[in-house]
Amino acid sequence: MARVVVDVMPKPEILDPQGKAVLGALPRLGFDLVTDVRQGKRFELQVDGEITDAVLAEIEKVAGTLLSNPVIEDFEVHVEEHSVAEVAHEAGRA
Known about the structure:
Layout: E1 2-10, H1 17-28, E2 41-47, H2 53-67, E3 73-80, H3 84-93
GO molecular function: ATP binding; phosphoribosylformylglycinamidine synthase activity
EC number: 6.3.5.3
Subcellular location: Cytoplasm
């Protein structure tokens, strides 16, 4: 089983109040290195079988019609070996 990830972010020209709120909170918590924050969404999709160009084209359609708002958001589709949760789980066992 393969995993395809869709990362959705606000377009650069779109205001990001959630990102600005996080940016404003960081110095109050003692984190001074970050200069900007943009908040987005991540979708992990399980796909049966091999990831082909046709499968990726289908995922692109899903991302453009359901997972994102193309007027205000951009998205990227990529294949990933392990989910964030699996990596965190493995790190906890080490």
